[in-house]
Amino acid sequence: MSTDMTGWVEVAARSELLPGEFKVVYDGDTPIAVYNIDGELYAVEDVCTHDGGDLAGGTVHGYEVECPRHGARFDLRSGAVTCPPAYEPIAKFPVREVDGLIWTRDDR
Ligand code: FES
Questions:
Q1: Exposed/middle/buried for 57, CB within 10 Å: 0-12, 13-18, 19+?
Q2: Least crowded by CB within 10 Å, which of 2, 17, 34, 71?
Q3: Pocket of ligand 1 from Cβ distances under 6 Å
Q4: Are 21 and 65 in contact (CB under 8 A)?
Q5: pLDDT tens digits for 47-59?
Q6: Ligand 1 centroid – CA 6 distance (Å)
Q7: Chain-wide mean pLDDT for the chain?
């Protein structure tokens, strides 16, 4: 994993993150889960706002990821909660593709 001069973190080659797959990278201490949903890329903080569980690895339903711990759901397009027991959204981060490589960053 590498970081470019403007703070973007390399995720993977586009060819390595196929539809239905995800990958977690770190920007500093921030875990970022990048999902490929039907060819579109979405990056969110990999921390459930209910009790801090990892979201990566949870079942994906369309554009929603379900937290493996207690079942809260979040919309990967916006970070919004779609099902309790979480009530606060997760952070959503930018994702871009340059020369076949996927990049993301914690822009907060
Ligand atoms: S930690 Fe995610 S639903 Fe409880």
A1: middle
A2: 2
A3: 48, 50-51, 53, 67, 69-72, 85-86
A4: no
A5: 999 999 999 999 9
A6: 33
A7: 95
